[in-house]
Design a protein that fits this description.
single chain, 416 residues, 13 strands, 12% strand, binds pyridoxal-5'-phosphate
């Protein structure tokens, strides 16, 4: 183990922080305990100061002060914030993204709409390492609509490859209605090849639905550039929108009228306040809304999204790569010699903004880390997931967190 010989490990984390162009963004967040090493911003991002102020203002000035009159401007919020996110961070065009409901609900609605649009095809393609809620929703849809799931069984670290998807499409010629995957895998952080898989699915006549929960606010997506059909994701992870913040859905412009919103609610109705007979969807992405949005949550989400838009997705991506490269260098120097293996891709271009490290006693180590004021999360059976949020995680956090892990796991890191 030659810690001294590896410049990325001997690099002083304070020097890396001093050279970080996004370092000042940390001051825009509420961080009551600076000694807590928080490595879980990919499960629940820290609160932006402006989100806290905004929620207070919406409650006192708008809710208390304007009362029902608030809806004059609240009604526009799902689309306004959808554009801020879609155009600002996801590479969508205007009027292709709205904020509404939860990721699970939005995923159900878009998967359901995709199946309705391909009534004569039986197969849904997804992978066994996909996020549980996506798999459960698909199992229910397949059962209720007499479809079948063609499961991919990908490499647990690298995730589904273009070849995996191609082989499954070829095994069900003309019979795949929907291909749906996570863009960034929640466990290993593997980035799926969104452009190539989207093109393959289109060649086979299928629709594609991407779950962007771990990509939004951490890696560029390019929805319009790559011709993606459908996407969903949550705003409480890298977008710092707050616990249970509302999710978003994306429907490509030309599909908005072709596909049908399976929940015909009054917020999707043209001339909503005529309260007329019969559902007539409003044109555009607004037709994909369903019911009354929660304005306190939406206000917090808007401020969370705005911080990432201001930082810029390319700068965020560059910092995410630097943080994960640093974490992997520390893993190799301090953790690999004591029995850890890396549970994330080594190629930075194929890796999102978290890193999983694996050892059989990961559950117990996670508990001891939390006692030592280092918060990662545990993913059964053997992974400790280190979420590195580009706007709030410092290089000093990474060094301290991994040094404490190495110490707890049985070794004194030389540079720790
Ligand atoms: C976090 C996450 C979700 C969460 O769904 P909720 O409806 O917000 O509970 C869904 N999909 C993926 C891929 C996630 O990472």
């Amino acid at each position: 183990m030659s810690i001294e010989a590896d410049p990325s490990v001997t690099a002083d984390p304070a020097a890396l922080d001093a050279a970080d162009p996004l370092a000042s963004f940390r001051r825009r967040f509420v961080i009551p305990d600076p000694d807590l090493v928080y490595l879980d911003g990919n499960s629940l991002g820290r609160p932006p100061l402006r989100a806290i102020e905004r929620v207070a203002r919406v409650a006192t000035e708008e809710w208390a002060g304007q009362l029902i009159r608030g809806w004059d401007h609240w009604l526009e919020a799902p689309r306004r914030v959808g554009d801020l996110l879609g155009v600002g961070l996801l590479g969508a065009r205007r009027d292709e993204v709205v904020i509404c409901d939860s990721t699970t609900i939005d995923f159900f609605r878009l998967a359901s709409a995709a199946l309705d649009a391909r009534p004569n095809r039986r197969c849904i393609v997804t992978d066994r390492a996909n996020f549980p809620t996506d798999r459960y929703v698909l199992e229910g849809l397949a059962r209720d609509r007499d479809r079948e799931i063609a499961w991919l069984d990908p490499d647990p670290i690298d995730g589904p490859s273009v070849d995996d998807v191609g082989a499954t499409l070829a095994a069900h010629p003309g019979d795949v209605a929907l291909v749906t995957l996570s863009h960034v895998n929640y466990r290993s952080a593997a980035i799926a090849d969104l452009p190539a898989i989207t093109a393959l699915a289109h060649d086979a006549g299928a629709l594609v639905l991407w779950d962007l929960s771990h990509s939004a606010g951490s890696v560029p997506v390019g929805l319009a550039e790559h011709g993606v059909d459908l996407a969903v994701g949550c705003t409480y992870k890298y977008l710092n929108g707050g616990p249970g913040a509302p999710a978003y859905l994306y429907v490509r412009a030309d599909l908005q009228a072709e596909l049908r919103n399976p929940i015909q609610g009054w917020f999707g109705q043209a001339e909503q306040f005529e309260m007329g007979q019969g559902f007539r969807p409003t044109a555009g992405i607004g037709g994909w809304l369903t019911g009354t949005p929660g304005m306190l949550g939406l206000a917090a989400a808007e401020e969370g999204i705005r911080v990432s838009v201001e930082a810029g997705i390319d700068a965020i991506r560059a910092k995410g790569i630097a943080l994960t490269e640093y974490a992997i260098a520390l893993h190799d120097a301090w953790l690999a010699p004591i029995g850890f293996t890396l549970g994330s891709p080594r190629d930075a271009g194929r890796r999102g903004s978290h890193v999983s490290v694996r050892r059989a006693d990961a559950r117990d180590l996670t508990r001891r880390l939390i006692e030592a004021a280092v918060i990662p999360d545990f993913r059964a059976p053997d992974s400790i997931r280190l979420g590195l949020s580009p706007l709030t995680t410092s290089f000093a956090d990474v060094a301290r967190g991994i040094a404490i892990l190495a110490r707890l796991a049985g070794s004194e890191p030389a540079a720790g």
